[in-house]
Design brief:
single chain; alpha+beta; Creatine Amidinohydrolase, Chain A, domain 1; Creatine Amidinohydrolase; 2 domains; 3-stranded antiparallel β-sheet; 10 helices; 34% helix; binds zinc ion
Length: 372
């Protein structure tokens, strides 16, 4: 439109964040968490900080990133230090002459070493510890972010279909994990959003099993927890359990129970509902069947630029859900030495409820896999 200058979505985020940190008594802010720098600037590299001054914003980086920064965040000023110069020297240089009431910083991310240097070498400045301010903004996704997560879900699902279709008994857990990673890359992703968990038989009882060089064979159950890291850094996170051989009636019961618990929890998701209440919706179902003590982790977590971010769906988390949040719902029951079941999907909170973003089949009749 003539005469109208469209603001980048990163500028919109920065303006919003500026309003937030002002409430903490700071008029400047140093962002040191690289994921938060990406969120507020669009820069996808690392080793760079974002500094808010009272009247402008700049990225502090080194010459390896000059070109990338110019391409990815053309609307930001750059302060490129010469090779061998420490980051705090750059900060010192930029802050010279700046009149500030207080500079907020991310106390959960800045190193003690950096904090010491800044305290000693940038005199006359009040450093205001803040933590989690940007993470709170990141919990609610905008339309582009939701689309990026949808894309990451689609890549993960396509990779899974390929892996599932080619499953052979002699294939090792590690080979299945590598296959998933490879497919995600072929479909355009950066890779897996975390090292996939592929656990066969009794090993499925280990919620965080590392894939081993053991053949998957027909051990009854095969648990796969995987996700894609999309081209712009947004993640997906899914878990399915495939039935690869004969399993006991007890494990079949556990499968159906976990699925029921997951469905109950998903049904509870809508704006205003507390995260703890969604966790409780699943936990109640599992506890009522007598398996409560075998569900030893929280129900889910937010996903976005990080594989684990806010909000947490867990007991004691009294944050209300808001439209735009994207959370995993992943109840599990783990029977030591026997096997385990976890079923995980990615769910978007919408204005009038929720949308499940993933749709890999999970009904009992859909999860029987023939091993070649
Ligand atoms: Zn997962
Ligand atoms: Zn997860």
């Amino acid at each position: 439109m003539v005469g109208e200058i469209s603001m980048s979505r990163y500028q919109v985020r920065r303006d919003k964040f500026r309003r937030h940190f002002k409430k903490e008594g700071a008029d400047c802010f140093l962002v040191t968490n690289f994921t938060n720098v990406t969120y507020l600037s669009g820069f996808t590299g690392d080793d760079s900080f974002l500094l808010f001054l009272p009247d402008r914003e700049l990225v502090l980086s080194d010459p390896r990133y000059t070109t990338q920064l110019q391409q990815e965040c053309p609307d930001l000023e750059l302060e490129i230090r010469s090779p061998g110069t420490a980051m705090f020297k750059s900060i010192q240089k930029v802050l010279r002459g700046v009149k500030s009431r207080g500079i907020g910083f991310e106390s959960g991310s800045m190193s003690v070493h950096m904090h010491g240097h800044l305290g000693d070498e940038v005199p006359g400045v009040e450093w205001v510890p803040c933590n989690g301010l940007i993470e709170i903004l990141r919990m609610v996704k905008d339309r582009e972010e939701v689309q990026s997560i949808r894309d990451a879900v689609a890549m993960a699902q396509r990779a899974f279909s390929v892996a599932r279709a080619g499953l052979r008994g002699a294939e090792t857990e590690r080979a299945v994990a590598h296959g998933l990673e490879n497919q995600i890359r072929l479909f355009g992703g950066r890779g897996c959003s975390f090292p996939p968990i592929v656990a066969t038989g009794p090993r499925a009882a280990l919620p965080h099993a590392t894939p081993e060089s053991i053949p998957i064979e027909s051990h009854g159950l095969l648990l796969i927890d995987w996700g894609a890291d999309g081209p712009d850094g947004y993640k997906s996170d899914l878990t399915r359990v495939l039935v690869t051989g004969k399993i006991s009636p007890k494990l079949e019961r556990v499968y159906r129970l976990v699925l029921k618990a997951q469905e109950r929890a998903i049904r509870a998701i809508r704006p205003g509902v507390l995260c703890s209440a969604v966790d409780a919706a699943a936990r109640k179902v599992i506890a009522a069947a007598g398996f409560g003590k075998y569900f030893g982790h929280g129900l889910g977590h937010g996903i976005g630029l990080d594989i684990h971010e806010g909000p947490r769906l867990a007991g004691g988390c009294d944050r209300p859900l808001r439209a735009g949040m994207v959370v995993t719902v992943e109840p599990g029951v783990y029977l030591p030495g026997v096997g385990g079941v976890r079923i995980e999907d990615d769910v978007l909170v919408t204005r009038d409820g929720h949308t499940v973003l993933s749709d890999v089949p999970k009904e009992w009749d859909d999860v029987h896999a023939e091993l070649g």
